[in-house]
Amino acid sequence: MSRPRLSLVSILAAAAFVAGCSQNLFRRETPPAVINLEPPPGVAAPAHTLPQPLASLPEQPSYANLDSRQLESALARSQTENQLIQEELAAVRDQLASTTSQLAASRTVARPADQAANGGGAAGAVAAPQAAAMQSAVGQLALGDLPVRLDGGVVRIEIPAERLFENGTANLLPAGIAVLTQLAGELERVFPGHFLGIEGHLDTEPIRGDAWDSAHQLTAAQAAAVFDFLAARTPLDDGQMFLVAHGANHPVVSNATAAGRRRNRRIECVVYPERAP
What we know:
Number of strands: 5
Shape: elongated
Mean pLDDT: 77
Order of helices and strands: HHHHEEHHEHEHE
CATH architecture of one domain: 2-Layer Sandwich
CATH class of one domain: Alpha Beta
Radius of gyration: 47 Å
Strand order of the largest sheet: 1-2-5-3-4
Low-confidence stretches: 107-126
Strand content: 5-15%
């Protein structure tokens, strides 16, 4: 007796029963759900989901990759550029020093020049009668041993700094106050109302101490001290006076000797032929 043949449907049904419903060969596979990683509004996104920063800039070239010839060439180029910078800096310093000197000179004659212009004359070209009058007046001054000289159309009176100030300072000594008091009385008697320039001068020795950075600073302070005393304690008027700080730019003698340096440390009172208004 022959066995009955199993139909294909019966075989598939048996296989489905054995494997279970989850392994049903006839069930269509459901695609996996897509997970949305974008956070809801107001919630910060996880750090790993943010765009990565741009790559860092490339490193500067290293001289370690250069051979000796290239290094020597780079060094020579650097030295040449540095030399050019130093030369330009020196030129600027020279120009600044020249401008400072010109400015000081212009201040020295500024007020007398204005007076001369108003009178029809010119600064530096004093008329012969004025020069003769200034020369005659010089002989009338009674200033003891203070050096007095006629310089063109002006009268210069030298006062050694050691007779006026404490060493290396702008502090007036009692003896200096006496000298300035006598000077003011003589100027008021012989040159009443004349313009008076107060010029500070120094030698070329280095500045000592920390109070002053340069010779110009010290001479400016010394000239200002004389100006303030004459304006406040004597008959001289501040409107007829002005001050200039020359530093060590205008020595009267060489600074090669101690005596020369001592004389170059001075205050010069310069009397002009023009009168203040």
